[in-house]
Amino acid sequence: MEVLQSGNDPALVTNLEVMQLLQERIAARQQQQQSQTPNGGGATDESNSTNRNSAFQNRDWIEQTVLNHLQSSPVGGINVESLQNIPTLVEQLRRAPTTSNAASSIGVQVSSPTDEQQEQLSGYGLTNTEILQLLNHLPTSLVELHLLIDDLEKREHLDEEEKQMELLQLISQFAGKTDEGIE
């Protein structure tokens, strides 16, 4: 067996991406089965179809079971269009937190940004695994957030409850949930 790509980090896939992939595969398979139904078919077409179905029966069951589980998880209620927003959200979660004081101390001219611009500029400095956990679990409470992010209270940019609530609101906006869902 030959390793095609070595030295690369493994690709991390969110539950939402897996759910979309499974939905596409199952829909394509169902469409293919509908197009292959015999039109007055003979016994050979029917026996080939039965053999093919039984050969992939376990795979089909596993895919459907995983899809059902993902649809009942927190990501199940999200529109698949949210996949387009994942790179933007990940970038903001990964980006190191910035403050205007730090920028001015190194001689950079900083104009006073509006609150909306400041929210877009600031990041949270989370690791890839923390981001993956947040995207998979979509926390709605501070308790869940503390369980998913290591040493949350020791991080300068997330040590206050207000900042943690801002992070929860960002995640809820991505998930398409209202502020009422945040405790």
TrEMBL record:
- Would the keyword Zinc turn up in this protein's UniProt record? no
Q: Where is this region: Disordered?
A: 27-53
Q: Which GO terms describe its cellular component?
A: DNA-directed RNA polymerase complex; nucleus
The protein's predominant localisation is nucleus
Q: Which UniProt keywords apply?
A: DNA-directed RNA polymerase, Nucleus, Transcription
Q: Which Pfam families match?
A: RNA_pol_Rpb4
Keyword hit for Nucleotidyltransferase: no
Q: Where is the composition biased (Low complexity)?
A: 27-36
Q: Where in the cell is it found?
A: Nucleus
Superkingdom of source: Eukaryota
Please name the SUPFAM superfamilies in this protein's record.
Answer: HRDC-like
- Family per similarity comment: Belongs to the eukaryotic RPC9 RNA polymerase subunit family.
Name of the protein: DNA-directed RNA polymerase III subunit RPC9
